[in-house]
Amino acid sequence: MLNDYVKIHGSKDGLVIITSDVSDIDALKEKIINRIERSLTFFKGAQLTVKFRNLGVDEKSLDELKEFVLENYGVNVRFKKIQERHLKNVTSENDIFDGLEEGMTKFYKGTVRSGQIVKYYGNLVVLGDVNPGGIVQASGNIIIMGTLRGIAHAGMSGNLDSIIAASKINAMQLRISNIISRSPDNDIEALYPEIALVKKK
Amino acid sequence: MSEVIVITSGKGGVGKTTTTANIGTYLSMKGFKTALVDTDIGLRNLDVVMGLENRIVYDLVDVVEGQCRLKQALIKDKRFDGLYLLPAAQTRDKTAVNPEQMRAITEELRQDFDYILIDCPAGIEQGFKNAIAGADRALVVTTPEVSAVRDADRIIGLLEASDVRDHMLIINRIKMDMVKRGDMMNIDDIMDILAIDLLGVIPDDENIVISTNKGEPIVVDEKSLAGQAYRNLTQRLIGEDVPIINLDTNYGLIDRLKSLFKISSSR
Ligand SMILES: Nc1ncnc2c1ncn2[C@@H]1O[C@H](COP(=O)(O)OP(=O)(O)O)[C@@H](O)[C@H]1O
Ligand SMILES: [Mg+2]
Question: DSSP string of B13-25?
Fold first, then answer.
């Protein structure tokens, strides 16, 4: 049952475990070890970020846990405390957004014109076009109910699973996390809605 | 009730000054008291297009600096009653005036004029900010070129951010033969990107260059198609119901369908 609320995904921060409220250091320890033991080779030598909402675990116990995991499993753990607002899935610059399926979403009405930037630490829906020279950025998914002709950057804080969808994609550039793809130089005009995502190897 | 209308574009050389001169001239021909204000300080040329260069004594910067009264700086047009020009200074630059001062000048002009047209310099810096400061509405001029449309888009965004939300588009220098061959952006392509209302389309016409050099706006020429386009456009500006002049614009749609087929069959 423990694994039900342990989510794992890869990102630029290495592997990340996001777990819910933690009030007991032993429960947290159990969760982490449990997860590591299930795929030891996978974790070996890796950097592991654990995100949780701290409800009364002190720094000293966290440090001890960190030591313990490093010694016994060779995994370097980093703890990241989730703020209240993150529970609503709004992230900040460096936090990986985990609300791709269900999370905070901004609805932007209007055309994003050349020189304008619309940025949101969550999912972003644009009810209009994004013109050449315009930029939309989100830490989650980006959905454009119009033509994307500018630059869209989804998963900007590091989530490779985020997508970019638009009624028509004639984008100058698509960026998902740290992956950039630009439009072919002999661009053919888009005719139907498309979704951009990162190919899994 | 008077209106202050700024003519702007982002990119230079697309026809702001030509448009200001022609709309202004036709407004006065229709009996409206009209003031043209050249805010292109340091690169003035509305006076040349209007053929009034040799009458300049004072200019916009002189008014702002209190060297003269506004009325002294206004030059009366040589052809039409009720048409006046407030020229830009040639020996200064855009920083000689600020937006508050521009707003004060447009407010003062409202007392005496029905329409005040502001000819905006190229760019998005101080000169642009000055030009839009007192404006109720904006006319965004573009040519059917990707770079001009891009700049128009940028300008529309900046106008909206500055709360000038009443804006319309003028497409200048369209060449129907090039559009027909698919060598030029057509009106639909441009409208698709800019997504604002179209006030009018002006054909590319070498007579505009000739008339500009003579200091005689083409709108005065009864027989000219470009003149007709400016007359229609001005009528729509003041709320009269005239159709957008037919420059064979149907070709826009046909072209589109053709290229649709081309693309789908090549996929
Ligand atoms: N429709 C047109 N057809 C041909 N030439 C034009 C047309 N509109 C403008 N021009 C020419 O283009 C040049 C630039 O126009 P101008 O009005 O000075 O542009 P801006 O004020 O935007 O810099 C001028 O030489 C003008 O005569
Ligand atoms: Mg000019």
Answer: TSSHHHHHHHHHH
